[in-house]
Structures are given as structure tokens and as C-alpha cells.
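Sequence only, no structure available. Ideas?
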Amino acid sequence: MRIMFLDPPVRQPRSALTLVVLASFWLATLGNLALWRNLVAVPDLTGWHSWVFGCAFALIIASVLTALMSLFAWRLTLKPVISLLFLLAAFATHYMWMYGIVVDTPMVVNVFQTDTREARDQLSWQLLATVLGLALLPMIWLWRQAVETTTFIQQLWRNLGMCVVALVVAFGTLQLVFQDFASLMRNHTQMRYQINPLNSVYALLDLTVIPSDQPKGPLQPLGLDAHITARDGQSTRPPLLVFVLGETARSQNFSLNGYERQTNPLLAKENITSFRNVASCGTSTAASVPCMFSHLGRSEFAKRSNEFENMLDVLQHAGYAVLWIDNQSGCKDQCDRIPNINTSSLKVPGHCEGDECRDTVMLTRIEAELAKLPAERRARGTVVVMHQMGSHGPAYFKRTPAEFKPFKPECTDTSLSQCDRTQVVNAYDNTLVFTDYFLSRVIAWLKTQEKTNTPAMLYVSDHGESLGEKNMYLHGLPYSVAPPEQTTVPMITWLSPSFEQLSRVSTRCLQSQRDKALSHDNLFHSVLGLMAVKTSVYQRELDFFAACEGR
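Reply:
I predicted one. C-alpha cells follow.
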């Protein structure tokens, strides 16, 4: 089947390298609109100085792209490679322009782990227009061009020659503006990840081709020596801990932590502790969740992420019943070796609309799923992880039913930058109000279990969120340059009176520690300590509950 408008017209063929150069300058200029917008805002670059530097920067990008594409300037690979770069640049431009994000390796991982529901939330007419203008139209032009025929040797020498010339131009231009360039990259680090589409290419190569420095081989067992120690407390009922894994909640917007809006009206009535100064492992679900359940801590986890089993494995080794209930896009491999269920596709009236299920749907399944766990394990105690949909954006308005929208008007456009910032914050804060309701329901359910169990709850979000501060939205910036809105997360504990007696951990003492600097690094050891698990991998100094034992 012929596609007529893609047929090359009868005209003088162009050399492959001419197409390479034209494509490079297209990508370096229009394909980097987000970069140029941010460059204009740099205070050290003003007037003619900014224009000279901007032109030099664009020439460097175009030259590097020319050098890269010249290696693929063969008849069979030329147009597919350029087309792929057009598409990468268009999609990256949209997200960088609309949300202020960057495209790095963790962000590409997030893309690959996004389910259809989350992907659909990203669709908008702005995305369509960007892809049409920056990718599809130049692709149509490209595929209509006739390419000059040369011998293999001729094309080889041309390609190599162009690659060398382009690199020389890039290096020479860089030397002319090196002082400004070095200062820019040092003081505005995020711009390193906004050079389009080189950022996307590097991220893809880093994920698929570049050798990893992480250890290879089978998963290493962890905490095989784990066992439950006898407690001094008097309760004979087994402990029941619900670990609520939050999604995209930032600490700054919790009224429990000083936010001027009442986003936690129900939790404020409970005897809880809200920790105000907790740092996340990462700025995305894919980065944070595996790290949260690891014993390594953020710095070591980045080097050895896939080497060991996790906290849930250790709890299982100790003899506890462990269950994962997911209302999101999966557990990021953390629940692979324990019983688990995904509720996001259930059709439960009152909890689900279309293909969207509220987090409360997990409570409709918890008792039935607990009953399936081995009775001998439940007799020792149970740990349940509930993975929220929470405040997942950009479609914040979808996360809340109509009765949980106290802040209006709210943004109902997934292109957040098209909404007034107040509307964006309204929509986001409404999700926190619903999370407050969900957590209060978890506590209410746990109270009903006190006749047979000794209940407690721990809630902590995986990462935070930008809501327009410095023109940034969503999350996923490299940790080194991410703002506190993306890295500071809420963490809340609720201990029933019987659990306080059993664990000898005082809520009053925990409340006195609420401003203590903590992080996801503390979770592994704190949960094990709270559940009285003794193992060689436990570190008491990282257990934030330990400071309140017997107090």
C-alpha cells in the first residue's frame, strides 16, 4: 500500500548529510523551546549577551546532533533515526514545557512502568499539537525527500568527515563560551537534563545499553536469621500493622504539618504522630518504592538496587503473614514473593467509576484477603501494605469524588500550566482531603480488629510534588536538583493503646520527636523494630521508634 503524500517528488535528490544538518538545526532550535525559555530567565544572561550565548549554545547542540546522526546517514537508517529523534524531542518538549520536568533515566523508567490508565491521563490537545508541529510535519517533509545515491565507500568517508567536522565545531564553539557554559551547568544543574533530544537519547542508552555498575546475578536472600522476639507487653493478641504507602503526597500541604488549609480534618481528631521533616528516597515511584523497602539506604541503594531481598521478605522470614494490596500501577517488584492483589481494575459500586477506583476500594477486600493467609502466620502477626493511588497527577481531579472537593474551583485540565495555579493547588489539596478520609477509615477499621489483634498504622508517601513553584509541576527531577516539594514527604503513625502497651512505644514520646530529621532510610529498620523482629541486618540507630521505647 502506497501512502501518496510520503512519495518523494520528482526533484533533485538531497545528500544524506544535508538532511542531517537540516534536522539537527530543527531539533536544536524548535526542539529546545523549553530550554530556551529557561535560559531567558537566567539572571546572569541579559541583553545581547544572552542572544550571543543562546546562539552559541544552539550551535553546540546542533553540531553534537549532526555528529551523532552522521553515523546513521545511510539510506536505510537515515530517515528512521531522524524520525525517532523528532518524536523523542516532541514528547520531551511537551512535558518539559508544560510541567517543567526533565528527561533522565528515572523518568524513562517511569514511562515504561506507566499503565494505560495513567497514560490516558496525560493525553491532551496540547500534546497532540506539539507532536504534530515538532514531529509529524517535519517527518512528512523528511520522508518526501529523495536521497542521493552514493557508493558505500563514498558515504562512509562523508559520514566520518561530517562527524569530525561537527565535533570540531562543537568543541570550538564551546571554548568561546566556556566560562558562561560552565557557570550555567554548575548553577542551573537541571538544564543539563533539558538539552533535547540528547537527554532522551542518553537516558535510553543508560537504561538499555550502557553497562550497569550494579551487581549482576540472582537475588540475594536477606535476613534469613530473622525471628520474632518475646515482648514485655501484656497483650496476647497478635500485632496487626497496616503500612499505607502514599502516592505523590507532599508534606508542605498537610495541615497536620502547619499548612494553612485544613487538609487533615479527620486525622487531627485521632491520637496520631505526624512527622514533619522526612526525606524521600527518590522523586518518582519507580525510584522511591524499591528503595523504601531496602535495608541499604538511598546512597547505597543507587549502586546496588537489585541485589537483595527487601523488608517484606525479612518479615516473612521472621514468621509474619504479609499481604500487599495495590490500587496503583504495581508494586515495583516489592511484592513478588508475598501474597498480593491489585484492586485498581475492580468494579465495586461506590468505590469505582469507569476504570478509576478510589483508595477506599482496598478496605472492601482486606478482610477476605487476610483470611486467605496461613492461619499459623496470622497467629504470630500480620503486616499489610496498602499502595494508594493517592494524589497521582496530573489528573488530580479524578482522584476525588464530588463530596471531597472543599477547595474550588479546581483544575480539570491535565496540562496543568494551562490552569491558574490556585486551581491546580485546589485540585491537589482535594486529593489530600480524600487521603485524610481514607487514612481515617483505615484507623476505624483497625479499631474494629482490637478484639482479636493489636493494631497500628504507619503512613508515608513515596515522593512529593511540584505545583507550579518556579514553573515546575509534577515530580521526577534528579534528586540533586529537586526542590523540597518533591523530596519532603508526610509520615504518620497511629498506635492503638494495646499496641503501645505491647511495643512499649509511647505516642506522646513520638509526638515530641515530630520535627526530627528522618528519611525513607529509617523505614526498614523502624518497621522491623516496631514488629519486634531480631535479625543481623537490623540497625537500631536507624529505628525512630527505638528512641521512644519505655518512655
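The two ends are 78 Å apart (CA to CA).
Hope that gets you unstuck.
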